[in-house]
Amino acid sequence: MTSEELKRLDREVIWHPYSPLVGSSDPILISSAEGAYFHTADGRKILDAISSWWVNTHGHARKEIADAIAKQASEMQQVMFAGFTHEPAIKLGKGLLEILPKNQSKVFFSDDGSTAVEVGLKMAFQYWHNMQKPKTKVIALDGAYHGDTFGAMAVGERGTFTEPFFPYLFKVDFVDFPQPDNEDKVIQQFREIASSGEVAAFIFEPLVQGAAGMRMYSPELLERLFGICQEYEILTIADEVMTGFGRTGKYFATDYLSVDPDIYCLSKGLTGGTIALGVTTCSKDVEKAYHHADITKTFFHGHSFTANPIACAAANASLELLRSQDCQKQLEMITKHHLEFYNKVEDHPMVAKIQHLGTILSIEVKSDDATSYTNNLRKKISTYFMERDLHLRPLGNVIYIIPPFVVNAEDLAKIYNAIMSFLNEINQ
Ligand SMILES: *Cc1c(COP(=O)(O)O)cnc(C)c1O
Questions:
Q1: Which atom of ligand 1 is nearest to the CA of 209?
Q2: Which of 96, 103, 227, 276 is the most buried (most CB within 10 A)?
Q3: Average pLDDT of the chain to the nearest whole number
Q4: Which of 51, 110, 119, 145 should be mutated for ligand 1, with most atoms under 8 A from CB?
Q5: What is the pLDDT of residues 21-75, one digit of tens each?
Q6: pTM for the whole structure
Q7: Extended strands (E) in 226-302
Q8: Which residue, by CA, sits nearest to atom 8 of ligand 1?
């Protein structure tokens, strides 16, 4: 089919995510991708500065992962995972436990970030059921995003995106998003809810809230919240779907903490951003509540494609790349360049706030409109950068960079220069 035919058909039959059916600009037709770049059907090369919705880590069309997928696909593509098992899944489980904190003991597979979160919540709720200690409350942070399925929506920020579903979302206690000037208040709110003794779990995006605009908060504050959780026997669920696998400069954002969560939810970078796969891991303590032959204490959850061998093979190849010297050097390189740009742009008159951790850098642009996803700068920002072949899809008035780890210094300079030009332009 020609590009024109494809574009016409797209308009006719496809419903794209997070896109109004009227008024959206036509999607860009991508024909291939390599490294940090997309190649469009009409010959443009677009730098993917946000890793295709934060998933890509080792670059597009990465050969090591492509080979692993091809090899696995020619040997075994799918086998049900209840009553059967296979090497790609076992290898991946072992590999993950090698890089996760020592308290983690079991690996449960699902399909994506949202299902990894659903599994984490269900695992925590049934833990208390199995322990015969009824606890039903959940604590989350204001501005949280944990996915688009119902449980994940329930523990996320209540806003425009979820409003049609409010009547169907279970009740969650939200505490203010921790900032340097409200930490004591957050602790007080948290303690008040926790002290009811009815809280089953605390779910959070460690150190960086992605969808809220790459907002960051301090490891010390999170450690204090963990302290309260320990005091009142509350399970901690780290949603590392976005922050996992090197994003923050370490394997996991929780590696910046001196305490370990009970449950991890992982996806996005798990397969290097090549195929959907979700994983939820839990500690020995959580596992113990399920250590029964008693069928009523079994975790009854599973998906048709649980631990799909091709996805697991991709994840194994990705994990090997992540652990390589080359990748670790790239993480250091990106972190160093981000920091230099941070220092350069920090005092720019159009910068309201700038934040940085590892490969993530976010800049809140000054705006009369209140900060939100629908901010009137959003369209202006994406258009400005897309005209320069840079894919920088903002979150409202927040411009952020989350590049594939394979970007080079030249690519990064291109991004920084374009951001600087944009800021100068709107400052006039
Ligand atoms: C993207 C994301 C999810 C949802 O993952 P999907 O694969 O899109 O379902 C959950 N939690 C966080 C922190 C995310 O960034």
A1: 13
A2: 96
A3: 96
A4: 145
A5: 998 889 999 999 999 999 999 999 999 999 999 999 999 999 999 999 999 999 9
A6: 0.97
A7: 235-239, 263-266, 278-283
A8: 113
